[in-house]
Amino acid sequence: MTKWRLEPRASSSIFFSAAITSASLCAALVAGGVLMTLMKVNPLVSYSEILRGALGSGYGFSETLVKAIPITLTGLACLFSFKMMIWNIGAEGQLVMGALASAAVVRYFYFDSHVAMFILMFAASAISGGVWGAIPGFLKGRWAVNEIIATLMLNYIALYTMDFMLYGAWKDPMSMGFPMTAPFPDSARLWRFGNTRVHAGIVIAVIVSFLAWIVMRWTQWGFEIRVIGESQRAARYFGMSIMRNILLVMFVSGAIAGICGFGEVAGLQGRLSRGFAVGYGFTGVIVAWLARLNPLAVPLVAFLMGILLVGGDTLQVVMALPLSSVQMIQGMILFSILGGELFSKYRLRRVGAAGRSDVPTEGAV
Amino acid sequence: MDILIPMLAAAIRSGTPVLYSVLGEILTERSGVMNLGLEGLMLVGAFAGFAVTQSTGSPYAGLAAAFLAGVLVTLIHAFLCITMGANQVVSGLALTMFGGGMSGMLGRGHIGETIKGLSPFRIPILGDIPLIGPVLFHHDIMVYISYILVAALGFFIFRTRPGMNLRAVGENPRASDAMGLSVAGIRYFYTLVGGGLSGIAGGYLSVVYTQMWVEGMTSGRGWIAVALVIFSIWHPFRAALGCYLFGGIDALQMRMQAAGTSIPAPLLLMLPYLMTLVVLTFISIRKRQGILLGAPASLGNPFRREERE
Predict the structure, then answer these.
(1) Is A36 among the domain residues?
(2) Which chain A residues are closer than 8 Å to B227 by Cβ?
(3) Which whole-number Å values give the CA distances from A54 to A23, A301, A310, B153, in the listed order?
(4) Can you tell me the ipTM of this complex?
(5) Structural domain count of chain A
(6) A84: left (phi > 0), else alpha (psi -120 to 50), else beta?
(7) Residue A104 domain boundaries
(8) Angle at Cα A278 formed by Cα A45 and Cα B277, nearest 5°?
(9) Fewer CB near the last or first residue (10 Å), C or N of chain A?
(10) CATH fold of B4-288, please?
(11) Hey, which residues 191-230 in chain A have their CB within 8 Å of chain B?
């Protein structure tokens, strides 16, 4: 009798983990295809519509970039906290708070200068998102309040705060009842590339990715974050302050998400309107995990997710499929990435009936 | 009185779907597995319950389908977390996305359609008690079943041999394994049952509570359930308390909206989430002070026999 057993892998190369990730992606798409067939939707047509919509034209390609901007930033926001094994699921709420702060700057501190507005809105959104992230960080550090629930509840609270402003004091009298602010004046807008909707947020996203990589790879603080993520006990032994790091990481995480909100309202929408942040916070979770918490891989993965989102819009128009079809595929991708991870950490070995390995184990712990 | 009794009765009705989900998650977490996908499971259950009730005309068949759908979808989570040892937080989030997405996809074209679900009936004698009668015993059958379930689980978890095994696996899987218990088997069983109960929770929402299908109709109740599990300190009796408290806030919020108060609707809608956060913080402070017990010791940790901790 032969049995299969899992054994830990000594190490895995970057190519190997890239191969595993790609294989997982393919598996998710195949499984998604099977489900679609069961729901009487042709998966081949759907997938080719997704690709055609997202990459088939210059417009589609630019729209994919437009989607990749917020997802890169929410992905980085999640990455920072995940590295420390702090589960910030509240990028959505932090993003909304950042957007609210940007809109507040435009309303109450308006100067007719591009530079002044950029600096003010950028700073306000980062601080506002950062504080929204630091609240659960404080609760976690001080009283061990579960940060998953806290950040999620704060998502809803942020969304209803936005509703409160948009249905109330900030509502544009010219909007015919739609919950949105008046359009921002020109100097409060980010510049755009040519006549596409791609805005300066893309530069911010790339810079933040590099900064995140430098912080994680080359700084003392990045080292502390990684150590705390691996083992809180070891970190305490080294004399690292857990409380301070949780607060700091959650602030930075929230600030990145807040900046993302600024980019969306000042770059894309040109006003604050209800429903501008459709699930970017959750998509950030997938992006961070798919990128295996590597900041430089985040923009790439965000681009892939952008294809799915833009393609999803096409599906809505061409095949009348709801946006939830994309959400379903996102869930499956995350499932198969999780499944695939096992193969990068362990390998399957055939063992004899007695449970002994047929092959001598080298390097296995 | 004229206001209080309908309010309290509404609190019970509104708390019941969350209660089913919380009871399920207590079983799951007691075995050491964390399932954060309750929101997705509730949505899958809600659609399954709606669809089967609509096509068969039987709300009972609908609720059974909701349970089965919950079990089936949870199978993915159980396989990844128990067999594969995957990260339970991420898998739970994936479950939320997947469940929400799949229910939305299946439910396209049915949004807003109504069904004939269960109706309330009065329990004789008990229903005639002043105050208590109209609040507790003028409901549908699923509310009564939830009362029994709370008591039964409270007894099962703390007073029976299988219940003790369940707690042992959640607290110390290594010792349980040495005792000859099947850690994986027990975890699979309670994770699946827990998922099924979340399915019923969703089914209650669509088949009984609203009697219609709306995409994303749980609106965060699954997450509130996760928070209430912490509030309950993994005890069914406290779970009931927490769920009716939540139901009370929800009912209050709806009544105030209907009465047309000067408080803007978004602030009222925010109330349940804000209260959940406040209560969660309060509970965590008490835990820190050692007044309340913490989570099952091995919650969230995969168990692999050949590995040392």
Answers:
(1) no
(2) 146, 149, 153
(3) 22, 15, 5, 51
(4) 0.88
(5) 1
(6) alpha
(7) 69-172+183-303
(8) 135
(9) N
(10) ABC transporter involved in vitamin B12 uptake, BtuC (1.10.3470)
(11) none
